[in-house]
């Protein structure tokens, strides 16, 4: 029987994304081994989505789970993101990797497949084609009902079910009914007014401007973020040899095309828009756009989740994008989901008569809110220069100078707290 003074003996995880699979693996590898089942609405491992950038704080977690070795040579490893001016000048290098864990940009599909393979070896099988619709909980259990009419009951339910989470509504309703009468619908995901537009281009098709004193351009170290008065353009390889470059721009648009609309018209609109925005930009953007193959364009509409009154009820938790969705500009979404999962497994393992479940969940939520706020603040500071739209010449020079000063004066210190975070070292007060 489930009690609040012992670790749960069965956990139901909704969502087989990076967060859900990482939690399943973390629970199965604990000394105490907490059995779990993962459910996902897809019929099988989804093969959609672009690449995600992972920094040492998440690679460390994947290493402990035995996943890192399988993926580290399957994506693009890098130490720093170069900030450059539109004329080809270097502003500075923002350090994202360490010697032990170079940062890794990797296809979301490869990451998910590796997590899934290791999970299967641990005896964790995802139940595909199971769309969670609603939840009920008692003091001791939580029950999920699926679209196919079946249901499952466990000691706990964890919703790693992404930005359009179903589990979130249950947690919010539970928090609000305990507190006030605010409207739970106010906490649904909202379109953030922008979409990431990405297309793949072979490196040899991109021409780089020659450095001063040289006749020909050679590729500078990638990834590279080009900052211009009109906006920004990111060049980011995602294959091990760095020969296939993802070109990334952020499309500011008030109109949410809706889920179907993004798939049907989003790509065409995005191609038109990206060509228009970057028209007249010098190399390397010029040649990258010339090589644009519309069939290689991927559009990722960004939704944000308003600050929630709670991330958990007594026996139901939300985490990852379900609790805190990130803008595509921050590039931290997958990493934060992995951190949520790794810390949650530690918290559940520690439950005891002296450290009851309610306390473990309260501390987990507080620690993760603190960390997510730090990462969001960091991402929005780093992104300020890109967000403000077209800037004047003087304003642009000031932005470049401020960034140069941060990289030159702080060096590795500029990102130490971001990439040095270790879930194993977080004080849980147990
Ligand atoms: C299609 C896609 C493409 C992305 N592309 C990029 C990218 O290019 N770059 C980048 O940095 N980040 C990208 N992201 C975002 C990044 O991957 C997320 O921040 C990160 O994956 C969050 O992990 P998560 O486990 O919390 O949620 P998700 O990865 O969103 O996973 C949620 C899972 O829950 C399942 N699910 C949802 N609702 C239900 C339900 N009711 N019942 C059962 N299962 C359900 C979904 O099928 C999905 O598998 C993408 C996300 C998605 C979904």
UniProtKB/TrEMBL annotation:
Tell me the protein family, please: Belongs to the paxM FAD-dependent monooxygenase family.
Keyword check for Oxidoreductase = yes
Sorted alphabetically, the keyword list is:
FAD, Flavoprotein, Monooxygenase, Oxidoreductase
Record GO terms (molecular function): FAD binding; monooxygenase activity
Q: Which InterPro entries match?
A: FAD-bd, FAD-dep_Monooxygenase_BioMet, FAD/NAD-bd_sf
Q: Which Gene3D superfamilies match?
A: FAD/NAD(P)-binding domain (3.50.50.60)
Q: What is this protein called?
A: FAD/NAD(P)-binding domain-containing protein
Positions of the FAD-binding domain = 10-378
Q: Name one Pfam family in it.
A: FAD_binding_3
Specify whether Oxidoreductase is a keyword of the entry.
yes
